[in-house]
Structures are given as C-alpha cells and as structure tokens.
Amino acid sequence: MSAAGIGRVFVILVVCVFSSCESLFIGGDSYKRELTVKLYPNTTPSGGELLHVRAVGGNDTLHFLFCSQGAPTLLIVHTNSSSSTVKVNWPEFLARNTSGSLTVEPQSSVLYSTAVVFSRLLEYDDENDTAEAKSNFFPAYKLKDFIWTRMNLSDSTATLCGSPPRPGNGSLCLQLSVFGSEGRVDLEPRLLHSANSSQLEVWLNGLPPRSNTSRFMLELEAVGGAYPLSKVDVRKFIDDEYTPSIFQVSLWVSSPNNGSDILGFVQWKPVAYRTSRPSLEDATPCRNSDPRQQSGNSTSASSALIKAFYSDPAAMGMNVSFGIAGEPYYNSTMFLSWTMLVGVGSPPIDSFSPLVIGILTAGLGIPIVLLLGGGVFVFIAKKRESSVAGYEPIN
Amino acid sequence: MADFEERGTLLGDENEGPLAGRQEAGGPERPMSAICDPSHLLHRVVVLVFMCFLGFGSYFCYDNPAALQTQVIQDMNLNTAQFMQLYAWYSWPNVVLCFLGGFLIDRVFGIRLGTIIFSLFVCIGQVIFAAGAWANHFWLMEAGRFVFGIGGESLAVAQNTYAVNWFKGKELNLVFGLQLSMARLGSTVNMNIMGWVYNKVAVAVGSSGHTTLGISLMIAAGTCVFSLTCALVLAFFDKRAERILQKEQGRTGEVIKLTDVKDFSLSLWLIFIICVFYYVAIFPFIGQGQVFFIEKFNFSPAQARAVNSIVYIISAPASPILGFIVDKTGRNIGWVFAAVIATLCAHMMLAFTFWNPWIAMSLLGVSYSLLACALWPMVSFVVPEHQLGTAYGFMQSIQNLGLAVIAILVGVIVDIRGYLVLEVFFCACICNSLLFSVMISLPAGEDLNRSAAARAKLQKEMSTDAE
C-alpha cells in the first residue's frame, strides 16, 4: 500500500524531528548511577548462577541480585552509602541450608530491600472462552524445577532461559535490564524507567500447550523483610503514546501504614504481546489477582537467594493472567511476553512527549494568537476609520 | 457518509419539479382511486416511502466496518492502518464521480435506469465485500468497498432527483429532511445491530472467524437487495406516472462545467478548506471509534457501538430543527464558528479527560448537524446560480479526497503512536477549520454573516432593481 507507506513515512519523519528535541524536554530525573556487573558462575551440574549489579549513585547504592538457583529471583537492596558491598559465602549459598550466606556490608546501611520470585507457571483450559481462571487447571509448572541455562550477559542486560524438566521444546525466558539513568526502552510497552528501577521481561516461547484452548497465568511472590509489596494500585492516565491503546498502569507497592510514601514497587502495563516484535494488533490484555499472604518458609525453600538473604521472610503472592474472553488462545502464536519494572522509591511517572506538546502548541496556539492579533488589528483599523473626519455628502 | 443530503435541500428550492407545471396540462384520462393517481398526495406518499428506503441499504452498509471493528481486525488479522483502507477505498471513486453523477443521470442513463444501476453497484459491492471476508482475502474486501463506493454517492444524487421530480415547494424541504433522517436511521441501526448479528452467527457456525464475518456481511447485504427492490418499484411508478401524466423524465438540473473552477472566488476556496478540515475530524473518528471507547473508557463492545452511533441518532432530529433556526436567523459564519468551537471542545474532552464520553459525543452530534446546516448554504451565497452544480460537485470531490487520505493516516497514527496523538491531530485539524472560518469573514464577512431579515430585504431590492 503505497498510500499507507507514504503516510507512515510522514508520521515517522515528524516523530523523528520531535524526538530529537526530546533531550531538551526531559528535565525530570537526571539522577545517574554507575553500574558494575559481577557474575558468580556455578560449575556444579545443578546450574544456577548469581548476578550482582552494583549501581552507585551520589550518596547511595542499589544492589541488584538476580539468581537462577531454584526459582528465578530478583532482589534489590538499597543502602545509604556509596561504598557498600555484597559478601557471598558461595558454598553455603549453594547448600541452601542456612540464611546469612549473602550479606550486604555494612549491615547498618541497608535502607530497604525487596525481592520478586517467579514461582509457578499455571495453565488452564478455557473451553468456554470466558478467561475466568477458576477451574480446569492443568498441573502447574514449578519454576524451581526448570533447567536453567547460563546467563547471557550483554551491556547491562542479562538473559536467562529455562525449560521444563520433561524433554521437549519450548522455554520460559527472563531478561533483566539495569539502567544507570532515566530513559525508555524502544520495544513496546516502552515503560519509562528511572535510575532506581530495573526492567524484567518475561516471555514464553514455544512451550507446547496441553490443550487447544489453554491460557497461561504467571505466579509471582514478593518478599520483603519488614514491608513486602502488599497492594496493587491501578492508575489511569490520558497519554497512550508509548503503548497505544493502554491507558492504565498497575503498581504493586509497598507503603507502610497505607501512607503515600512508596518504598518499593513493581510496575507494569496491563498488556502482554503475542509476538516477539510487539505491535498494537498483537496486544492482549492481562489481569492480576489481589495479592495474598503466602508462607515465607516455602518461598525460602524454593529460592536460594531468599534463603540466603532473609532470615524471616514475609511473602505476598499474586497471579498475572494473560488474555481475556474473546482474545486468541496461546496456541495461535505460541508466544507470550510481558514486561515489568522493579524498583525502589517512587515509581517513574509518564509525561507528554515533545511531539504532543508541539502539536498542541502549534495547533491551538497559532489560531489563538492569530485571532487575538486579528481582533486587535480590526479594532485599531475601525478606530482609525472613525477618527478620520471626512467630507459628508450633501444628500 | 459525505454530506450530500444537506446540499440537496438547497438545490430543491431552485428546481420546482416538472410534475408541478404539468399537472394541469396532462391530467389522468379516466378517474382512478386516490392511491393509484400519480398526482394525488396519497400515491405520492407511497412513492415517498420507497424513495426513503432507497438509500437505507447503502447507509446501513457504509458503516459496517465501524460496527464490526474488533471482529474485522481480529478475523482478518489486520492492523488499524489496513482496517481504515476499507473507508479510504469507498472515498476514492467519489473524488471523480461527484462530478459525473449528475451528468450520468441526465444524459446517459436517465433517472430510472441510473438509479437501478447505482443500486446494483451498491448491492454487488457489498456482496463482493462479504465474499472477501468469507474467503479470507482482504484485497477482495477492498475491491468490494470500491465498487460499493461507485454506487453509494451517485445513488444519493439519484434519490434527490426523484424527490425533486415528485415533490415541489415547501413539500420538498420536508421530503429532503425525511430522506436525511432515514439515512441516519440506517447508520444508527447498523451500529447497534451488527454486533448482535455477528454473535448470533458465531453461535450458529460454532466459532468466530472470517467465515462468520462473511456470513454477517452477507446478511447486511440483504438491506442492499431491499434497496434495489425499492429502486425497481420506483422505476415502475415513475414510468407509469410519465405515461399517465405525460411528463418528461426527471433531470437533476445540475450543470457541471469544469472550466467554472477558475472563476471560484477566494471565499469559496476558504469554504472548501473549512469543509475538508472539519469532516476529516468526524467520519474517520467514528470509523474507528469503537476500539477507542473500549480501551480508554472500559466500555463493553455493545456500549462502545451505541456511543459511536449517538452522532447519527442526534443528527436525525437535530438537522431539521437547527436548519430551521439557521434559516430564520441567518448569520451563517457565526453558526459555523460556534459549531467548530463546540467540536473542538468535544475532541479535547475525549483526548484529555476521562469524563463520560456520552457528553462529548452528544456535543459532537449537535455541532456536526449545526455545521452542515450553516456551511453548505454559504456556497449558494458566494457562487452564481449557474455555477452551483460545479461548486457543490467540487466540494464533494475535495471532501472525499480528504477523507480517503486522512482515513489511512488515522490508521497509521493509531498503530504507531496511539489514541492521544490521534485526538490531538483531530484537534489540530479542527483548529485549522476554526482559523479559516475566521479568515473567511475578512473578504466576505458582510455577505455571509447577514441576518436572515437583511438578506431577504437585499433579495427584494435586487429583484425590484432587475424589473
């Protein structure tokens, strides 16, 4: 379609012009962090590595710990010193018997810590196309039993793939990206991240479904010492520029005493994509259940990192289900991807892009200016006319 | 559908039908019952019923894509840009046909055969469209919309010609108003019923998919067959009336001369620009509005279709009332200005707030009707009578060109940048319309903004001067 092609080129050209001015407009969060990456490889047959990313800011440090020993876990520790470090007793860590094998030194500098554990992948048969997710569940995939590959590191991203213990194709992959400054990843849903957050993308590729009408759910557990993530807020906003047709963002927050201060969060847009090159027509809505208390001990047992860091963890579990009634089933593309941000402090807030502000200013401003200018001009002209004393005709 | 109906109201007053003059000359030779007597009101009311339903099918099927947006996109695996092609292909043939419609009816086919041919195009076009969905070929669906477009707008010309032929004077305004209301009724019924039809077919077939879509569209084609039947019946009545009353076949009375274009004044070109910039913010928006209401306001598909159709529902009663008001008060530019500002407010509400969209869409419906009543008569104030046909044809043509191009652009914008940018784009178009409606008061403000009383006085003076 040449007409559609020309239209596309025109819009992209306008977008490029405005995006190149974007750096002038982002005044918001210019906080930057220095990133250093360290990988603890594991040569034992059980696999499972530990990735440590140290993000150092002006006077604080964020430690990101990503572990594939047992259920994949992301742990974020926020300390108020720029020289804090992580000490790992590797043999004790692998033994998974005691807590305290992973510590942050100095202990007193730890301000806040939060962890997210990917515990189970649930599959249910949605024969009536209602997407209710209450019955017809197949036996769940326990992610702690998956066979995980080595972490693939590049820049500041780490990719981890795992397949179920049964032989066969298909895998569940996780990609962690840690950022040193504010920005936006180019792939949809184009979440805005700050220097205090990391992005985790989860995707299911080629895993054979157990029925033609099955849909999937992912179970997450949030672990924290004193204040785990407890409730999910849904915020509406009018700008869907970066994720067309999505006008909400969901936040799983930890706020002590139901105050307005947010200590830690998991943020996502309620959309999942059915192809690896996401676009509007491949989007499928996703919904979450209310977070419920889980047993901290069973979470410790499934994840080595939780066992190592927390002595008495409190856990809250939540399910994210993909697809609603009327949407295509998983087997239409055999692919599902979902992205979330995990971070500490206040979550990043989206704002209008320069493109929208530019069009608004030009589109509304120019006519108003012209109207006012024209009105003034006409007023002055009329005054001048009436002040000129001309000869009046006799009849 | 482009606003052909509104301009028909204005030509009607100038062309009193041949039936009027010939009534005394060739009366019926033997006494007939009232209902069979072509000159009697009762017979003409029966003919009016068929005349109104003549356009029902084409207006019903024009907005089928909008009513079934989610189903079309899902079953045929489209993105929004491809979906909007269905509207673009309807508009492309009308860029040219707006000039040719009157000519074809007057010189080539005659009103009776012309109406039947255009109804056939509408019918065949919709059948091809449905067949394309059934066979899962999108290119065939686009071809179907193209054929449908060839018949659609020209059928409106034919419908107006029949009306002028059978009714005269004050009756004519009422008839045009009724035809317009029937057209809007067709659009409304389509929006609210097609979803239900699709669901019922899906249950019968067993699953949704392109086959279900094809069958639903074939059922919609039934309305086109009904309109074709009305065309055949009208041809029969018209031939019979011609024989009994010994009158000529009706003509459109329009004269299209392309060379007149160089004589168009600046204010006329400004009117064209206002028209284009305004309508591209209405029809393409309704065309893909269903998904917008579902996603942003969490409406169910049925609610989204209902709120999408509110513009047409309001337009049906509001157009005659607002037309009466504008006729009585004059000051057309002021009304155009008010309508454009109201539309801008409506789009800004939809873009920047989560307020109930029923409010914004109702405002949109009222302002759309107001603009139609105020803008189209302005053409007759700035153009001499012998050029009116060409001016209106050109306005329709540019309007269709704008709709065809912008429909595609709308789809692309939604796919890559989402609905806020789309609404901001619509606001920018409306602002352009606003700008030009202010600019037009500079060269021709006095002329176009006269009150109705002043205009009547001026016409009286001009006719006494001429004597």
From TrEMBL, chain A:
Protein family: Belongs to the GLMP family.
Protein name (Swiss-Prot/TrEMBL): Glycosylated lysosomal membrane protein
Pfam families: NCU-G1
Biased composition (Polar residues): 291-300
GO cellular component: lysosomal membrane
Location(s) in or outside the cell: Lysosome membrane
Membrane topology note: Single-pass type I membrane protein
Classification via PANTHER family: GLYCOSYLATED LYSOSOMAL MEMBRANE PROTEIN
Record region (Disordered): 279-300
Keyword Signal: yes
Subunit (UniProt): Interacts (via lumenal domain) with lysosomal protein MFSD1; the interaction starts while both proteins are still in the endoplasmic reticulum and is required for stabilization of MFSD1 in lysosomes but has no direct effect on its targeting to lysosomes or transporter activity.
Record's keyword terms, sorted: Glycoprotein, Lysosome, Membrane, Signal, Transmembrane, Transmembrane helix
Function: Required to protect lysosomal transporter MFSD1 from lysosomal proteolysis and for MFSD1 lysosomal localization.
Top-level taxon of the source organism: Eukaryota
InterPro entries: NCU-G1
Location (main, coarse): membrane
UniProtKB/TrEMBL annotation, chain B:
Reaction(s) this enzyme catalyzes, per UniProt: L-arginyl-glycine(out) = L-arginyl-glycine(in); L-lysyl-L-alanine(out) = L-lysyl-L-alanine(in); L-alpha-aminoacyl-L-arginine(out) = L-alpha-aminoacyl-L-arginine(in); L-lysyl-L-lysine(out) = L-lysyl-L-lysine(in)
Ranges annotated as spanning the membrane: 41-60, 86-105, 117-135, 215-237, 266-286, 306-326, 333-352, 391-414, 420-442
PROSITE patterns linked to this entry: MFS
Pfam families assigned: MFS_1 (PF07690)
UniProt keyword annotation of Transmembrane present: yes
Keywords: Lysosome, Membrane, Transmembrane, Transmembrane helix, Transport
Subcellular compartments: Lysosome membrane
Recorded GO MF terms: transmembrane transporter activity
Domain Major facilitator superfamily (MFS) profile: 41-445
Keyword Membrane among record annotations: yes
Membrane-protein topology: Multi-pass membrane protein
Any one cellular-component term (Gene Ontology): lysosomal membrane
Segments of this protein annotated with the region Disordered: 1-29
Described purpose of this protein according to its UniProt entry: Lysosomal dipeptide uniporter that selectively exports lysine, arginine or histidine-containing dipeptides with a net positive charge from the lysosome lumen into the cytosol. Could play a role in a specific type of protein O-glycosylation indirectly regulating macrophages migration and tissue invasion. Also essential for liver homeostasis.
Subunit (UniProt): Homodimer. Interacts with lysosomal protein GLMP (via lumenal domain); the interaction starts while both proteins are still in the endoplasmic reticulum and is required for stabilization of MFSD1 in lysosomes but has no direct effect on its targeting to lysosomes or transporter activity.
Family membership noted in the UniProt record: Belongs to the major facilitator superfamily.
Protein name: Lysosomal dipeptide transporter MFSD1
Native source species: Xiphophorus couchianus (Monterrey platyfish)
